[in-house]
Amino acid sequence: MDLTVILTFRCNSKCQMCYIWQNPTDPRQEVSLETLAKLPGGFDNLNVSGGEPTLRKDLAQVVDILYPKARIMEISSNGLNPHRLLPIIKKYPDIKVRFSLEGDEITNNTIRGEKNGYARKVAGLKMLQEAGGRDLGFAFVIQDENVDQLVAVYEKARAMGVELATSTLHNAWQFYKNDNYFYDRLRVARKVEGLVTAQLKSGKPKNWFRAYLNLGLIEKILGHDRLIRCTAGKDFAFIDPWSDVWACNVRSDLPMGNLARQSWDEIVASDTTRATLGKVHDCDQNCWMVTTARTAMRSNVIPQAPKLGPLAWVLYNKAKVSLGGKVDFDRYIDYGDIRQSPQVARSSFLGARMKANWAPDRSTTDQRYPLRSFFNR
Ligand code: SF4
């Protein structure tokens, strides 16, 4: 099982596609070291995220507790405080680190509301490389404003010897947003084809499977059904800053339990989790994020291997591209079927003196997540 631990909703970016920074948590209420120590071992990918996880003063201790419990430990960061990750990477060079990067200097800094963000994260990743980091990379949220730079950012990552993870605009309780729509779905989807082809041309099998993941992103951008059924709550789960465990980070009606009050075994075997798994089975949201898609791509028999469908697609199209051919995207994707988006302008907060909306009384789930339902189509 994969697990994401959202350590905090505090954040020092002001992204247009994620309003966590407008809803910061009180550090005194954030999931404690004692609670995290209750997690069992044996997780596959264990991702520490936020908000911005480097704002937790005890991040190094969190890593000491969680690192032995997972096959792969990952830290998702905005990259603005790379020096806080330096001692962690020196101690655990195989920890996977991804810094959010949304394009070139102007585009990244505008979308993310970051002062000198681009320069700080590029220099920071280089610093972690020099410190011995072995699995470093950028993470890119595809949207109308940056999709023209997608292949260039992939090539920049390759030139630096680091990875590129991709996702797209999404609505979710984690992001406190329900208006993350594309303005021109067809244009954005067609632009992602360039990345799929570039990844298939690469010599790294990891990139070939990322190409399949990005094929799924094209479906998502157009508003189509997921390529593979979701396995939230069974193959992956999320812990929020209040120690609540959720099947996914999208629907706020998929609870599993609370790690501060229960053991992990109690949570997994609870009636709450059973009811949630039933809702996941019937879920019609078209989520396709790294966590949700990666786990769904895995074989039910050999978890480290891919399912036959993705494997066959990868082998066929890799061979085709290697022989000078082109991926026939129209064979896989119905470009005649495009969902309409409401034309709601997304805003950027770059340079604005924004005050966080910290609400002291957030003792119930309704107070923590006032948006009740989320629309992803
Ligand atoms: S498809 Fe449904 S259950 Fe799965 S991650 Fe999305 S909202 Fe959650």
Structure report:
The protein has a domain at 2-181 and 225-297: TIM Barrel (Alpha-Beta Barrel). The radius of gyration is 20 Å and the shape is globular. It contains 14 helices and nine strands. Helix 7 (185-201) packs antiparallel against helix 8 (205-222) and helix 8 (205-222) packs across helix 12. The two termini are 26 Å apart. By secondary structure, the protein is of the alpha/beta class. The protein binds iron/sulfur cluster. Its cofactor is [4Fe-4S] cluster. Residues 230-287 form the 4Fe4S-binding SPASM domain. This is Radical SAM protein.
List the keywords:
9 strands, metal-binding, nine-stranded mixed β-sheet, alpha/beta, globular, TIM Barrel, 377 residues, S-adenosyl-L-methionine, iron-sulfur cluster binding, 14 helices, single chain, binds iron/sulfur cluster
Quick overview of this protein structure:
The protein is α/β, with parallel strands linked by helices. It is built from 14 helices and nine strands. A nine-stranded mixed beta sheet has the order 6-5-4-3-2-1-7-8-9, with helices on both faces.
* E-strand count: 9
Strand order of the largest sheet: 6-5-4-3-2-1-7-8-9
Task: Give average pLDDT, whole number.
Answer: 92
CATH architecture field of the domain at 2-181 and 225-297: Alpha-Beta Barrel
Low-confidence stretches: none
Ligand inventory: iron/sulfur cluster
- The best one-word shape is globular
Beta content comes to 5-15%
Instruction: Please work out how many helical segments DSSP would assign.
Output: 14
The largest β sheet comes out as: 9 strands, mixed
- Under CATH, the homologous superfamily of the domain at 2-181 and 225-297 reads Aldolase class I
CATH class of the domain at 2-181 and 225-297: Alpha Beta
Given the helix and strand composition, which structural class is it?
Answer: alpha/beta
Q: Whole-number radius of gyration?
A: 20 Å
